Amino acid sequence: MSRKRRKRTILLVDDQKRDRETIRRALEEDGYTVLEAADYSEGLQVHQQNLGKVDLLLTAIALPRHNGYELARAVFRTDPNLKVLFVSGHAGAEVSRFYNMPATGTHLLDKPIQTADLLDRVGKATRTRKRQHPYAKGAW
After folding, report:
1. What is the structure's pLDDT at 49?
2. What are the residue boundaries of the structural domains of the chain, listed by start?
3. H-type helices in 3-134, by residue range?
4. Which one, 35, 49, 69, 89, has the greatest CB density within 10 A?
5. 8 Å CB contact between 71 and 59
6. Which residues of 6-34 are buried (b: 16+ CB within 10 A; e: fewer)?
7. Per-10-residue mean pLDDT for the chain, 140 residues long?
């Protein structure tokens, strides 16, 4: 007998509407519930409205006024076990230096996103056991 898998919920934050729609569609077709936000403030609001229900924050690093790392740090204050997958159109080391963030321990998915890679990375992230993120205590 197979176990019924709980539907996972992903908070998708990206200011690029076309990217957000493409990612949302791929995730929903694979059985995920997707909550969307277009920027930092909306991302915080959606997260707070769904506190305890979000399994993964999938956020663009470059966002208007604040970046995805700042968003992750903010949500860690109320949800330190939340898993995070960052998306960027720039190389990882370049992004790390620009946003003054750690180059190691960071989960980064490069744009343009391939659907198979997206689903693989999201699947791995949502299936791993929750543990406190190493940067949740303000190490950034």
Report:
1. 97
2. 9-113
3. 17-29, 40-49, 68-76, 92-98, 115-127
4. 69
5. yes
6. eebbbbbbbbbeebbebbbebbeeeebeb
7. 66 95 96 97 97 94 88 92 83 49 59 90 79 46
